[in-house]
Design brief:
Elements: H1 2-18, E1 28-34, E2 37-43, H2 50-57, E3 61-72, E4 80-94, E5 99-104, E6 110-113, H3 116-124, E7 125-133, E8 143-154, H4 158-163, H5 167-170, E9 172-173, E10 177-181
Antiparallel strand pairs: 1-2, 2-7, 3-4, 3-8, 4-5, 5-6, 8-9, 8-10
Length: 183
């Protein structure tokens, strides 16, 4: 019986340490054309875990990376990658002002928010993200947009990464989201 209790506690500890996934829920995406450019609207539900909030408040910077790939899906041949786009958002906490700053590293735009829920809502809805110029696409092709998203803790020194057993639980991957790019 004592052996069973030890195994049970080890199993619970393992699950607790490895289940720190932050991004839960299903996302969606859609695309449309405006003045010869395809844009996308993306929904990515983001909920920060307590450990991630503590890390933010301790000075750790997080990056939300959106890696979008446009693929020509072909029935009898290999699929062809048409283009890729990476959009990065940086999330920081200022201990003096007690505010969160979200910076779009591609455009330089910044937004300041008082609560982590505001940050989650802001990053969960991305509107009018330019993807590709219409002139680069073929009329008869079947294009799919594939989005891989990840949240990564940045700014930790190497010695902290080495001794921090909880480091991996701060990084999270979203499920892959796919949608049709209509012509």
């Amino acid at each position: 019986m004592l052996g069973f209790i030890k195994v049970f506690h080890v199993t619970i500890a393992f699950l607790a340490l490895t289940s720190g996934i932050v991004l839960k829920a299903e996302g969606s995406g859609s695309s449309y054309i405006d003045n010869g450019v395809y844009y996308s609207d993306i929904e990515i539900p983001i909920n920060f875990e307590k450990e991630q909030i503590k890390a933010l408040e301790a000075g750790i910077v997080f990056n939300l990376e959106l890696n979008l790939k446009i693929v020509d899906i072909r029935n009898w041949r290999l699929d062809r990658d048409v283009g890729e786009l990476t959009q990065i958002y940086s999330i920081e906490f200022n201990a003096f002002t007690r505010r969160y700053t979200v910076s779009n590293k591609n455009t330089g735009r910044q937004a300041s928010m008082a609560m982590i829920q505001e940050v989650s809502e802001y990053l969960s809805t991305i509107r009018r993200l330019p993807l590709v110029d219409d002139s680069l696409l073929e009329l008869d092709a079947n294009y799919t947009v594939i989005l891989d998203s990840r949240l990564r803790a940045e700014g930790m020194s190497q010695w902290m990464k080495t001794i921090s057993f909880w480091r991996e639980s701060l990084d999270s991957d979203l499920e892959q989201i796919q949608w049709q790019l209509f012509r």
